[in-house]
Amino acid sequence: MYAAIEAGGTKFVCAVSDHDFTIKDRKHIPTTTPQETLGAVFTFFDQYDIEAIGIGSFGPIDANPESAHYGYITTTPKLAWTNFDFLGAIRAHYPNTKTAFTTDVNVAAFGEFKLGAAQGKKNVAYYTVGTGIGMGYIHNGQIYMGRENPEAGHFLVRRHPDDHFVGACPYHQDCLEGMAAGPALEQRWGKKGKDIDPNSQAWEIEAYYLAQASMNTTLYLSPDIIVFGGGVSKQAQLFPLIRSQFAKILGDYVDVPPISDYIVPVGLGDDAGITGALLLAAEQ
After folding, report:
1. 258 and 278 fall within a common domain
2. Domain with 63 in it
3. Is 78 exposed, middle or buried (0-12, 13-18, 19+ CB in 10 A)?
4. Which cofactor is essential here (predicted)?
5. What is the CATH number of the domain that holds 133?
6. Three-class secondary structure of residue 262 per DSSP
7. Omega within 30 of 0 (cis) for the link into 60
8. Helix 182-189 and helix 201-221: axis angle, to 10°?
9. Same structural domain for residues 131 and 261?
């Protein structure tokens, strides 16, 4: 069987599947301390004969296999996990099991590339917009990694003319994440995104920032498709706004595919990450 861990700052999602990627069992485990959380992870996986484990982790992480700290969660604000050798702990418990380790957003990108909205594409940009904003990129069918994982969620953006919110990012204040992630919506409008009226100006302003992310991504990476996941993908009224504003700010500078096929919501819903982790396990 294949095993997968989608390690988030609030909870770990663990799953096992057969070789056809049909999930046979799944468990949600609160993210507390490494000892407590991984203890529960091991109890769950120990029930099964596992061939390989795919891991997508919250971060920042060191995902460079050539680094001395490969597999570590590094400067996370979750203090119990700071500079924790996550992959090392997994390998110590399962010394004869193959592993794959990358970011949570990369496994979601891989899931969408293989089985979701980006099937048949070679170059796929995947954004998750939730508590934070992150991007994973599939380049010629492979997860892209530079010296570190790209942090496109912290692109600088132009401010919407009607937006006077200072920004919620503790590092850059009014970067993409600071202006468009869940905490920015809540602080600006006084309620969570799911509770904001679909006809509110909030979504026009949100789309303005996500359109800029789409434009930057188009100009930097020239992907075949841009997929948005996370809570934002559940706001169907947002996508026409993103596409319209993207077309306006891009100004026909470069050619892109038909826009309704180019900027799209996630195809696998909340299962993008866990599916991608299972697929990475299989590749091992």
Report:
1. no
2. 2-107+271-283
3. middle
4. Mg(2+)
5. 3.30.420.40
6. helix
7. yes
8. 150
9. yes
